[in-house]
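User: Teach me something about this protein's shape.
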Amino acid sequence: MSENSEFEDNIAMGCIAAISVFGLISNGLSFYLTRTRSRFRNAFGILCSSFLICNLQAIIVLLTWCTIVLSLKSPILSSPELFSVRLVGVILNGAWFGSILMHFLTAINRFFAFVYATRYNQLWSETRTFKIAIIFWTISMVYCTHHLYENCSLLFNYGSKYRWLHHTSYHGQICARIDAIVSVALIVAMACTDFITLLKIIAYHRTMRRNTTESTTVSVINEKEVLFFKQSCKLGLLYISCAVTYNIPSYLLTDKWMLFISSTIAVLLVHSLDGLIFLVFNRKLICKTNFDGTSIAPATNFQVNRRSE
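Assistant: First, the predicted structure itself:
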């Protein structure tokens, strides 16, 4: 770590701290709203709370560990020799995959809400959804236990470049590629689920135009659906951008500050902006207090109209 000056370490810590505080506020406020507003007292709210918890987990771990490493300046904290160092990588990467899995579950939840509205409350009860969220979070953590193996560890500031990096060994590079493939596969699956739901909504709109003359009802439903898909698209782009930014620059760049931005800062930003996007796209819903916490009107109408054909 002697390659980095005290001033450079302070700059890195300042950037990490600033973005982390922003992320803690955005995700913390979003989590508070999901647990206090009646609109989110359902399966959808549980899934939202779940990915917000994963975001908070990642931000807290990243902020704490980066501060420790850059403050103590001990080379052993950036090497895979200690079990505790390798465990940090497991917790951090587990939060990343946990967040993606929760977003994937949210996409599936919305698909069922529109297509299987009459069975939605039965299939997605609060108790069942809570258990599913716990199981998928556990799966993400168990999957990342390969980082406990010394040659597959995920380390911070390895090589004094202020970045999170898989071990440079042969097995470490294999783990890095597998993590990248799994991340992209989950994000693509989430996007495909949203696209299928969009096709169902388009079909629903066509049915509504044929069977109703109340244009105001259609416009209200359309506004909510457009809001939902804008949020889904932005979240998908956010995660795919982070996956690309994290993996590709390591093959093209050598400057430590560019690598710092493309890895540590990119991971922090994606978790922080996730909470902000939730706030922005749900600000109108959050301000209202007369929502029914268990029903989804557009989906119910969709199912009823299909039966009447």
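Now, about its shape. Residues 1-286 form a domain with the Rhopdopsin 7-helix transmembrane proteins fold (CATH 1.20.1070.10). The two ends are 70 Å apart (CA to CA). If you'd like, I can walk through any region in more detail.
User: That's plenty for now, thanks!
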